[in-house]
Each structure stands twice: as structure tokens, then as C-alpha cells.
Design a protein that fits this description.
Low-confidence stretches: none
Number of strands: 2
Distance between the termini: 32 Å
Largest sheet: 2 strands, antiparallel
Order of helices and strands: HHHHHHHHEE
Radius of gyration: 21 Å
Strand order of the largest sheet: 1-2
Helix content: over 70%
Shape: globular
Strand content: under 5%
Mean pLDDT: 79
Oligomer: single chain
Amino acid sequence: MRFHDVNFFLKLAAAFLVMLVAWMVPGWQFGVPLAIASVVFLAAVKVPGLRAYLKGAVLLVVLVIASWLVNLALQGQSLTNASTIATGMAARLVTTTAAFFFVMETSSPGSILAAASAARLPPIVTLVLSLTFGIIPMLREDFERIADAQRARGMEIDDVPFVTRLRFALARGVPLLVQAIRMAHAISISLSIYGFDMKHKRTTWRNVGLLVEPKLNLKDHKA
């Protein structure tokens, strides 16, 4: 099946279902295999940006386990119990982020708009969905471009200690915030130019069913 072309709402529902399973089932014995299976699925369907996600997932796992170990140790938990709890929490977060990473990376703003329009959702809901799942990948690309600009200016951000790399990564937040504000301003201007009105109901320009087709079949619509 063409997983990338599946209806946006089906992918979103599947992501929520995977998240619920990950958080409702206790114990790391189930959580770790589910997290590994989620990452393997991303690799199997060739999701774009997987390498960047894996880097972020490794950082997430390290930070979560370290913070929970310290927190539980201060509460008097044994190292064994703290390790199992921290590992389970990290596994749940990896599964959750992997599920929604798949939705974001395989859903273009056009496919989201088409699915929302076919479902006759209110314009404001359609706008929020398309912006939320469409802008996050673009911000990630801007984050990588900022890193490339730092490298071009002679800043070594790869072969440095982990703490230094983390500090440089956090330093990218300021230009990323500026870029996000500029993007939001550009989107608002574009909506105004094209006469976006929340009271106006729009039709879809795609054939949306189980899969999202790129265009309508005109032969089926001839009188």
C-alpha cells in the first residue's frame, strides 16, 4: 500500500492509536519492542528525514533516562527500579514521536487541505491542521540550514563534546524563532491576499478516499 498517500485523517488516527497503546501498556518489556518496531517501520517505508529524527530520538532517550534516574534516585528508588521506569518512559516517547513524525513527513499541506475539505471541516480547523503539520517539517529544515550556516562560518558543531553540541543546538533557537515569526507573517499576508474567509465553505480539488489521489478523474465527471 502507498502509505504516503493514505488519507491524512487515517494516518492521524493510527498515530493516536499507537500512542494510546504505548502509554496504556505498562512496563519496558513491551514498550522497548514497540519503539524499535516503530523506528523499523519508518525505515521500511522510507520516511524522509529519518536520519535527523534518529539523532533527535537518541538525544531524547539520553535526556529522559538521565533526568528520570536522577529524579527517582532522589525519591529513594533503587537503581534497578529507576532504570526500568526510565527506560519505559523513554520507549513510550520514542514510539509517540515516531508515530507523529510519520504523519508529519508523509502529509503535505495540500493533502491535508484536500482531506479536511472533503470532510467539510470548519475553515479554522482546516487551517490549524495544515499549519501545524505543514510548518513543523519546514522549521526542521530551517534548523538544519542554520546549522549549515554555522559550519560555513567556521563553527565546529560536529566533532565536539556532547555538552558543547547541545549548547550550540540551543543557540539555534533564536534565529529559528525569528524565522518562524517571519513565516507566520508571510502566511497571514498570503491568506489576506487570497481572501481567506472562515465563513466560506470550500470544495476539495482532489479525490479523497482511503488514498489521496493527486487529481480528479475528469472522465468520471463527464455528463
